């Protein structure tokens, strides 16, 4: 029994508020609070649920992937659920993640691959006999939106692979480069249309168009970062998988590093935190993944996120006002 009634009330208030923000963000591509403010609400909910586990419900936002499947698109099932990532906000959280990984793999050596966390929209691409046949959003993780026709307009997505792999599903991030985002918002401002809050929302809004000509005009790109499903032998490690994806013709971000321990991971994260604004696309953190696919499988996942990966979120920058400020600070 929870003796503290305030805890229960607060949990309900937080859930209502988070559901409302999820709808604005995932369904309307129009968030009304900053991501760090949202993360703070989520963290508070997690902390209360950790203290009072009897308050955890299956529909709590802490237990589910936050996306939606919009009407107007055909919904398609994912072969393997597309999960979210749990978050780390500082060095201590990263060390805690490393401790959990080692506790679950006692006595084993673990190496990590550290990648840029591209601030875009997760996509899943299916290839049959090397041909692109289906593209989908993450949606709620179980079901995504079929956006194949829109993804066909994105030039960085190969329509045919260099090898006739019988079946492969590849996952990655679709994003809008900063200069395209700036131009799009300037045009919208001139036309008196509502501005996109950030490149992530602009990319999501552009991909979830019922008219693919609009998507085609938006200059989107992709970085692919994982094999979701492969008929046949897997490449053994995540970094070998990335190299193979590149050989197959996918655009893979060159900025990633294999690290032998958490200290090296932290140093690489700090390095990118200092130069995040130098990139022509927005990143909101780093993603740390156990490299061995066999160890990944043994670590498994919760309903919401894999235990073998974590997102390190950069601290928020001060509030910005003009479009130009936004572009310099995303
Ligand atoms: P997330 O964005 O924190 O992390 C998971 C996602 O990271 C993956 O689905 C993938 O799309 C992406 N990603 C980028 N680069 C990657 C890489 N190299 N490897 C693996 N994944 C990579 O989780 P989420 O569930 O998509 O979104 C939750 C976050 O969205 C929140 O933490 C918050 O910042 C934001 N959000 C904001 C609001 C708001 O109102 N402001 C509302 C909902 C969510």
TrEMBL record:
Residue numbers annotated as active site: 117 (n6-amp-lysine intermediate)
Binding sites annotated in the UniProt record for NAD(+): 35-39, 84-85, 115, 138, 173, 289, 313
Domain of life of the organism encoding this protein: Bacteria
Family listed: Belongs to the NAD-dependent DNA ligase family. LigA subfamily.
Function recorded in the entry: DNA ligase that catalyzes the formation of phosphodiester linkages between 5'-phosphoryl and 3'-hydroxyl groups in double-stranded DNA using NAD as a coenzyme and as the energy source for the reaction. It is essential for DNA replication and repair of damaged DNA.
Name the record gives this protein: DNA ligase
Native organism: Desulforamulus aeronauticus DSM 10349
Name of the gene: ligA
């Amino acid at each position: 029994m929870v003796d503290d009634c305030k805890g229960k009330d607060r949990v309900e208030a937080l859930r209502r508020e988070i559901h409302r923000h999820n709808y604005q963000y995932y369904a309307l591509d129009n968030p009304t609070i900053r991501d760090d403010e949202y993360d703070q609400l989520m963290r508070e909910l997690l902390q209360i649920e950790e203290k009072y586990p009897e308050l955890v419900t299956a529909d709590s936002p802490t237990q589910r992937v936050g996306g939606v499947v919009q009407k107007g698109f055909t919904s398609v099932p994912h072969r393997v659920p597309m999960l979210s990532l749990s978050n780390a906000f500082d060095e201590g959280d990263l060390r805690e993640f490393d401790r959990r990984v080692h506790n679950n793999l006692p006595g084993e050596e673990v190496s990590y691959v550290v990648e840029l966390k591209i601030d875009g929209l997760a996509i899943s691409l299916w290839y049959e006999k090397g041909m692109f046949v289906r593209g989908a959003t993450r949606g709620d993780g179980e079901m995504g939106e079929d956006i194949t026709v829109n993804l066909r307009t994105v030039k960085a997505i190969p329509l045919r692979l260099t090898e006739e792999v019988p079946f492969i599903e590849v996952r990655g991030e679709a994003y809008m480069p900063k200069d395209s985002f700036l131009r799009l918002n300037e045009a919208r401002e001139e036309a008196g249309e509502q501005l996109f809050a950030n490149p992530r929302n602009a990319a999501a809004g552009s991909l979830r168009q019922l008219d693919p000509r609009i998507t085609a005009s938006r200059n989107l790109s992709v970085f692919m970062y994982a094999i979701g499903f492969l008929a046949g032998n897997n490449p053994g490690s995540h970094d070998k998988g990335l190299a193979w994806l590149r050989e197959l013709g996918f655009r893979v971000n060159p900025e990633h590093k294999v690290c032998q321990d958490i200290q090296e991971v932290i140093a690489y994260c700090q390095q990118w935190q200092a130069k995040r604004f130098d990139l022509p696309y927005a990143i909101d953190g780093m993603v740390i993944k156990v490299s061995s696919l066999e160890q990944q499988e043994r670590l498994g996942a919760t309903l919401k996120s894999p235990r073998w990966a974590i997102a390190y979120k950069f601290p928020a920058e001060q509030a910005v006002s003009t479009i130009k400020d936004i572009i310099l600070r995303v």
